[in-house]
Amino acid sequence: MDEATARSLGRAADVVARRADDTAAAERLGLGLSRLRTVPGGLAYQRYTPSLSVVLAGRKRSVVGDDDQVWGLDRFFITPVDLPVLSGVVATDERYGFLSARWRLDPALVTEVATAMPRTRREPSGPLDRLGAWTPALAGVFARLLGLLDEPEHIPLLGPQFARETVLRLLQTTQAPRVLAATDAHDPVVPRAVRLLTERIAEPWTLDALAAEVSASRATLSRRFKQATSMTPMQYLKRLRLGEARHRMVVRGDSAARAATAVGYRSAPHFTRDYRLVYGTSPAADAARAREQLREWAG
């Protein structure tokens, strides 16, 4: 990492360390901030909305489909559409513990900036790395955006300006295809497919049925979906169903059978097999362990 980028991200970490609890100012900037002193065990299911995710101190493991990576300050993570992710903190920093920030990508803003940019849009020629590399310009504007947490009175004036520049700088990185995938205007196929799977999670989807719904061929849907999410549509649906079932068991207290049925599984053994492959244990055992952890953290 070059010196200018390191300085900018260092300033960003300082701000988040001081202001992680300032939820009001963070919300005005479209930011979600987190600070942890200790390392929780294991992976947890999360639904990421379209966003730019940054680890400013410590390291994190993220599993998206078959893509399993550990990352930290040197990279960033673009989520172009709602994405089921397994993630967990694997290391903390001596000074800060674990710090992270997630900034919502506004599809309308992405469309506005992309339309005004003098650039030629091309399909990526090969597989796209899910983690992006910082540029000095991107790190600089992101640090300025976070710096507004120290000057919340300037958010109405400078917030929109820094947000536009952040999108512009993202579109100048290799992650531009993923950023553009957040907009229906650029490519409606993937956002529409994600909405269908999310809103109608329990339906017996097939790739043919989903392709017909979004007016695309099987090949086009599969290729674009893989580029945007690192998963095939059916892998995405499976991870979505398992995550929602886990939420129902842990938070709502549903039985494994009830949760499985609610998200579209027709076979209890099939659900248990898929669940064990992802979470490493049975649905009932995992839910009991997760509820116990929640009680410990709350108490």
Automatic annotation (TrEMBL):
Source domain of life: Bacteria
Organism field: Streptomyces evansiae
Keyword Ligase appears in the UniProt entry: no
Pfam families: AraC_N, HTH_18
Keyword RNA-binding appears in the UniProt entry: no
InterPro entries found in the cross-reference section: Homeodomain-like_sf, HTH_AraC, Tscrpt_reg_HTH_AraC_N
SUPFAM superfamilies noted in UniProt: Homeodomain-like
Domain HTH araC/xylS-type: 191-289
UniProt KW keywords: Transcription, Transcription regulation
Protein name: AraC family transcriptional regulator
